[in-house]
Write a sequence for this structure.
């Protein structure tokens, strides 16, 4: 191991954050870390890194790290995220952090501090989530929260290195599969099975291709009903913002207009779609569970997001261009919509054959 160099700190104008840079004496590679918007934090982290590397170089024990429990670290982490992230995102993150905490407490009861957690323990946690039957994207989201949590521990000086740093993403066994969607006949069966209190919301997703959160936070202020010019505006509001923080206008077909007109309105700030028992907003879990119940009765598979795939797939099969579908879905790039393009060839061939 070479003698460590003192890390340098610098300011990035493109994102307004202070960073540090140093050479890893073990690998010879340049390490760059984004710290925070405060210069003092970057200086603190720079000193911490240098002390850690020098302790390793001199073979000295690591005395300067402050011990903290995983529970206290989680609390401090989420405090730092208040007013900096959407509440709906924070709720999801907190749930994932609780899963990790429960796993560590149940499987490694002798662990008292974050400093005792090793990479293998985190790998076992993620593996256990797969064994519980969680979907690939769920476990990938778990991994991102784990990484963020331990990166935060490093930033605050509780750890010299994150035990999650070298954990790689899991291969998705379904990645090569084409996007799945329901046929029109399946859609009719599903909507007929869903209980009336939830049916309008699900049918609206089918007719608009909205994301679940976009539907949940849709208010009467976002709707314009004017015949064929009727549309909704997906836009940020207090407590929520759309994906990528981008607003978009989505036209409403006749079915969607009728679904909106059936909903009860008390004031313009009310959410349009609510639960069947007078709740103020659609409950994301109950809404999902009702669809899963209906699918089980019919013998089909899928989730709420499959409505979005069905909306896009059926438009492409009807001859709508992928670029137009991309705009309706609110995708940030056309490449995101290209997964539906394989549905177009046969319909396009039928169209050009009419010239013969």
């Amino acid at each position: 191991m070479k003698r460590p160099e003192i890390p340098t700190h610098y300011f990035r104008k493109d994102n307004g954050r202070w960073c540090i840079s140093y050479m890893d004496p073990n690998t010879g590679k340049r390490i760059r870390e984004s710290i925070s918007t405060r210069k003092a934090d970057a200086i603190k982290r720079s000193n911490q890194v240098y002390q850690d590397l020098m302790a390793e170089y001199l073979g000295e024990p690591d005395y300067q790290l402050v011990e903290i429990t995983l529970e206290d670290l989680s609390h401090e982490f989420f405090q730092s995220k208040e007013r900096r992230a959407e509440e709906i995102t924070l709720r999801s993150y907190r749930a994932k952090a609780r899963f990790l905490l429960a796993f560590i407490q149940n499987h490694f009861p002798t662990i008292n501090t974050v400093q005792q957690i090793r990479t293998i323990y985190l790998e076992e946690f993620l593996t256990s989530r797969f064994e519980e039957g969680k979907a690939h994207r769920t476990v990938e989201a778990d991994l991102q929260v784990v990484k963020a949590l331990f990166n935060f521990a490093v930033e605050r000086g509780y750890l010299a290195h994150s035990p999650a740093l070298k954990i790689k993403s899991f291969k998705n066994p379904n990645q090569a599969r084409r996007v799945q969607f329901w046929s029109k006949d399946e859609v009719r069966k599903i909507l007929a099975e869903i209980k009336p209190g939830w049916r309008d919301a699900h049918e609206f997703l089918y007719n608009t291709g909205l994301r679940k959160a976009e539907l949940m936070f849709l208010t009467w202020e976002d709707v314009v009903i004017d015949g064929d010019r009727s549309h909704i505006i997906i836009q940020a509001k207090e407590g929520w913002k759309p994906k990528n923080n981008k607003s978009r206008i989505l036209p409403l077909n006749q079915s969607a207009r009728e679904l909106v007109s059936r909903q009860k309105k008390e004031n313009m700030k009310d959410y349009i779609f609510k639960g069947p028992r007078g709740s103020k907003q659609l409950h994301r879990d109950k809404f999902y569970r009702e669809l899963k119940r209906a699918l089980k009765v019919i013998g089909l598979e899928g989730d709420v997001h499959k409505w979005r795939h069905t909306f896009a797939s059926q438009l492409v099969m009807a001859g709508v261009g992928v670029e137009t579908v991309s705009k309706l879905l609110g995708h940030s790039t056309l490449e995101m919509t290209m997964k539906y393009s394989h549905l177009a060839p046969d319909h396009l061939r039928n169209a050009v054959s009419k010239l013969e």
In short: The chain has a mean pLDDT of 86.
